[in-house]
Write a structure and sequence with these properties.
A hairpin with a 5-residue loop joins β11 and β12 (177-180). The chain folds into 2 domains: 38-208, Cytidine Deaminase, domain 2, CATH 3.40.140; 213-257, no CATH class. Strands 12-11-10-9-5-6-4-13 form an 8-stranded mixed beta sheet, with helices on both faces. The radius of gyration is 25 Å and the shape is globular. The protein has helices at 43-55, 99-111, 135-147, 195-205, 228-232, 234-237, 242-245, 251-257; strands at residues 8-10, 13-18, 23-26, 38-42, 61-68, 77-84, 88-90, 95-96, 121-125, 153-159, 165-171, 177-180, 182-186, 206-208, 213-216, 219-222, 240-241. α1 (43-55) crosses α4. The chain contains 8 helices and 17 strands.
Length: 258
């Protein structure tokens, strides 16, 4: 008599069913890994992202609107359909958007009829550095997720002026995790924003913060004001040498002239 079927994966073998005296094995079964999530970016918006990176005198951050594709071919698929630039203060290694600037951006977006529930995309630049997820970046991801009405998920991109990028999606509820995403460029939905308009937006909304002169070890370097990275990663944040820049004298250089 055949007893109740058992479906259980154990090591290399799957137990399928058993009789009173025999155990039957089926062919080894491997679970297929789910496809990576994809972000579809219209070429006009990708051009805008690069233009913002190039036009900014330092880093830059912009927010965007994305929709989850209802008929995804494989895995989760999202589509970027708009960008909005807030007022911000930047350096060569940091960017800061105040609460007032964030609120002003949200009010303008709502007045323009944009769906605030779609504001789940953030990109920031690493200027000419290789993109990576710094401790500060991850902290910003968590802070932004809390700030956008505790959104359950958020897509982030870090990109440099050369177009090299990383993209990830973070889920905050009901479980906290993240995964890397693939970016797929698709046909433009609208005209590409002119470079002149991009420069005007950056000039109006982005304020460059002058670097501070600091000393690290035996080498005097030019760092940045009030950057969370400076305290933990001074070698990364203080990347301009006075010997190279020759624009701001260092403390030791000034002392040697006296």
């Amino acid at each position: 008599m055949v007893k109740r079927s058992i479906a259980k994966v154990s090591g290399a073998k799957t137990y399928s069913s058993k009789t009173a005296s025999k155990m039957h094995y089926v062919r080894d079964t491997k679970l297929q890994e789910p496809a990576r999530s994809k972000l579809f970016v219209p070429i006009n918006l990708y051009a805008d992202i690069l233009s913002y990176c190039v036009a900014s005198p330092g880093e830059i951050r912009s927010y965007g609107f994305v929709k989850l594709q209802e008929r995804a071919v494989s895995g989760n698929e999202f589509r970027l359909h708009g960008l909005i630039l807030p007022e911000q203060t930047v350096t060569g290694a940091s960017v800061h958007v105040s609460q007032d600037a964030m609120l002003d951006m949200l009010i303008k977006a709502d007045a323009a009829g944009l769906n605030m529930n779609d504001m789940r995309f953030v990109f920031h630049s690493h200027v000419d550095f290789e993109p990576f997820w710094s401790e500060t970046d991850v902290g910003d991801v968590n802070h932004t997720g809390d700030g956008l009405a505790e959104t359950p998920w958020l897509i982030n991109m870090v990109i440099n002026r050369g177009g090299i990028y990383l993209c990830r999606i973070d889920q905050f509820e009901p479980l906290r995790f993240h995964e890397d995403m693939d970016v797929v460029l698709v046909a433009a939905e609208a005209d590409i924003t002119g470079a002149e308009q991009i420069r005007e937006d950056v000039e109006r909304l982005v304020t460059i913060e002058q670097p501070a002169v600091v000393a690290y070890g035996e080498k005097d370097v030019i760092g940045t004001y009030d950057s969370p990275w400076y305290h933990d990663y001074p070698n990364y944040n203080c990347y301009y040498s006075a010997a190279i820049q020759n624009s701001v004298p260092t403390a030791s250089a000034t002392a040697s002239k006296k």
